[in-house]
Amino acid sequence: MGARVTVNQAGLLADPAGALVWPEHRCLVVADLHLEKGSSYAAHGRMLPPYDTRTTLARLAALIRHYRPSRVVCLGDSFHDRKAAARLPEGEAAQLKRLVVAQRWTWIAGNHDPVPPTAFGGEIVDELTLGPLCFRHQPVAREHAAGEVCGHLHPKAALSVRGRRISGPCFVTDGRRIVLPAFGAYAGGLDVLDPAIASLFGRGGFRVLMPGRDRVHAFTRDRLSAFSGTNRLAAPQVGA
Amino acid sequence: MAADRNLLPPVFAQWFQTRGWTPHPHQLAMLAAARAGRSALLIAPTGGGKTLAGFLPSLIELAAVQPSGLHTLYISPLKALAIDVHRNVEIPIADMALPIRAETRTGDTPSAKRARQRRKPPQILMTTPESLALFLSYPEAPQIFGNLACIVIDELHALANTKRGDLFALGLARLGGLAPAARRVGLSATIADPDGLARWLGSGMDRPVMTIKGPSGAAPDISIMTPAARIPWSGHMALHAMPEVYAAIRAARTTIVFVNTRAQTELVFQALWRLNNDNLPIALHHGSLAPEQRRKVEAAMAAGKLRAVVATSSLDLGVDWGEVDLVIQVGAPKGATRLLQRIGRSNHRFDEPSRAILVPANRFEMLECRAAIEAIRADELDGDPPRTGGLDVLAQHILGLSCSRPFHADDLYTEVTSAAPYAGLSRGDFDETLAFVATGGYALRAYDRYRRMRQDEDGRWRVANGLAARQYRLNVGTIVEAPMLDVRLRNNRRLGQIEEYFIQFLELGDTFMFAGHVLRYEAMRETSVIVSRSSGETPNVPAYAGGRLPLTTQLSRRVRGLLEDQAGWREFSADVQEWLRLQRLRSLLPRREGLLIESFPRGRKHFLVAYCFEGRNAHQTLGMLLTRRMERMGLKPLGFVATDYVIAVWSLRPAVRFDTLFDQDMLGDDLEAWMAESSMLKRTFRNVAVIAGLIERRHPGEEKTGRQVVFSSDLIYDVLRKHEPGHVLLRATRADAASGLTDVRRLADMLARVKGRITHRALRRVSPLAVPVLLEVGKESVYGAAIDSLLDEAAQELIAEATAEEADDGVAELPLGPPVGGDR
Questions:
Q1: Three-state DSSP class for A229?
Q2: pLDDT of residue A232
Q3: Residues 25-84 in A contacting B (C-alpha not used; CB under 8 Å)
Q4: Interface test with B, best of A26, A66, A154, A238 (most B CBs within 10 A)
Q5: Where are the domains of chain B?
Q6: Who's near B500: CB < 8 A, 6+ residues apart?
Q7: Fewest C-beta in 10 Å: which of B44, B596, B715, B781?
Q8: What are the tens digits of pLDDT across the range B730-769?
């Protein structure tokens, strides 16, 4: 069950799988797929399990089956590096093509994939404006942020409940802009309290929408606990 | 063995004389063993010339023959101990002007000296298991170790049954291949199974290892403190007894106050200083303190400047303090062997008994202290069953060897199985581990082109590239620290390090104890916890319970015996006797055999209390499994809490059919299902993945930045479990968890033992013996319900807040088109 969220007057739905849905435009939005991150590490001697692309695409396919969108927008860093497309195993490459062709598909360029591959179909843009919303990879300065839907930061939040610590990827929003969690199976996270994320929002603060197992829960900033230092290191370098 | 003085060459005999010493019989016995070319295990308490006994044969040989190259390799589990021993060995070398070069080699050794040690090794080298592994990974290893005559392993008891011990055993097997004639000398504290340790040491050798016993000395004088205050029902801090502890410190010359957890160190230290009207120099020592602070305490201790030090197991091993004449153990000893080794830290003169006072912190601990004393008197020590070597450690070893020189898989398999922990290793597991090192070992052969090891035309394996070799060398070792954070004051002064797990539970502004102060959590900056000193005396966050060891099986049996044998109760304080008599009146006493279960209503819930005495870890696992089963039986379980002795579960409906509830079959599917999603497994997997080299602690090129490469092991675990549940690292993880955090092995033994012997008592209210565990309720985290209900609960707290209306409760989903295939 998703949570409703309004961004710059657009009515959106945050899905527990970490995707954003815009019913009015029948649009499904995901961020930071980081396809073939596993093999990128393997090429540098770190033999992470090679199933990350398979896992990520299966989750994406399930969302598409469920929502039947007329358009899918990937908010950049869809491919972990420039050679990721070439490393994509045959089965996964074919599956990606099948997914892309079934509806309108927009690849937004990211810092990991400044030139997304054309081999899988879909249109490639730097950013996309639809009605009150603007889809891009990296957030821009606050004064230009109205309606911004972005990724890049891999937001993650933590809170303590009855002595138990619960943490996970989350959406962050102040109603003016929204940052999506990373969708990729191996994408790490950056604490939303880190200045790189927190400073995107004004004094009014922000809320996080945190997917649970099958629901999305909303919390204000003051309910969150800080992550410790090590967790943030799995996140992308800000400005990289 | 005849203590033949003639074994001692004149110059050595003279040296003993000028020192005013007579060689101990065990020193001469070790010498005789060496003369006969035999390997030996020396079992003796700390002090008593144990180190000299280990080195004397080498010194004599080296003085006579003066061979070039490495003659004696000394391995210590502690860097500090290696340095201390080096200092001690230099004394006879200097006194007798022996032409012997002895050096240490640790992680701190400058790289120029390391390189020279590789080219031109000293005759005696003092090092650690990790440095040995590094040595063995260099192409020069055969030259360095080819003429090795002797390997001395200090504190072997602390090494053998651990993952570090696995790594060292593999290194020892390799040394056996490089220098088959080298003698092995093990030095060990008193332990339960000397023969087992001797077999461990001599594994793969032609002749068995001789066991030589040092003097046992006078029996220790151990008593239980009986403070004026009543003994508490629960808790672990023993603050009620601090006036008496302080008085004992005042009456002694130098005291070590041992505690079980870091939190106890802090609180006990504070409590003693509140009483310290005489301004006695009392210090504290634990593994989380900054190294410079620890070294200061150690130096003050060695110089005899302290009257007492409050310490955790950070002082268990190694460096000999000499002057200590009293050991106080605050809190339960948890095991007889452990207690004996701690007591051994005091008074090293053999003719006088070591003196120790036990301070139980609660009523059950009173039983446990008594049980430990009786076990020591009966000479019944406890120890873990021998470990099966970890496949993660094997993976690390394989990569290391491939950096040294190419090997045939068949040869390596033979060598590896000559190491004690790997004697039972199947060829299949070996091959899978090898495949993991080479390409990740995934069924999907995606990484064949990114190999870390490849085979040459003769089928021999070698490291594939320099990167893999550098990765190995940067990440060698089996000690995986829990993620640690620096604790700093605002002026950036570093107080020490603290586990990330602890900080995660704090809110900004919370106060906690650390380094002897009450600190306020101010901020998180990079990898530092920024704190300020708080004026308050009591922290608002009870310190965490890290470092707790579970009660051993042997002590647990004795505690049950103490409950059953009522004649022995008069040894207990009056309040404990009264407690037990009341239990007898209201319910039953647990017996040595079988299992007592009580049930009673309380509030609007139904409680079940089981007196298992199998230690906290096994009880935690039991709690998870029981609540799962009760859920299925429709009993609506709400939570459970476990201590070392007892487990309590509460539910909305009363539990029934206890034989079914405690049936062994809970260890089947339920266990699998729970383990799969348990956070304990994820924590275990992280360690396994780091040791096996799947995740690096440090990556070449990034080691200087101080920025660790941390990859979320949870994400990898989830993906691997889904796509390749039989992967060798997942199997290694389950094996670790079964003997470690989840203690499944012990739980299985208990369920088998009590089968058909469960006694159930239905009570109208809580029994006296159940009170301690019920007092723990609320201090512990409760039944791990689904994450959503916890999040919901957190959301409930916020319902009054404006934001709550944004949370979507119950709004129907809005599919954008007709769903195909339905549920997701």
A1: helix
A2: 34
A3: 26, 28, 39, 41-52, 54-55, 62-63, 65-70
A4: A66
A5: 5-213, 221-377, 391-478+681-737, 484-533
A6: A228, A230, B482, B483, B484, B485
A7: B781
A8: 999 988 888 776 788 889 999 999 999 999 999 988 898 9
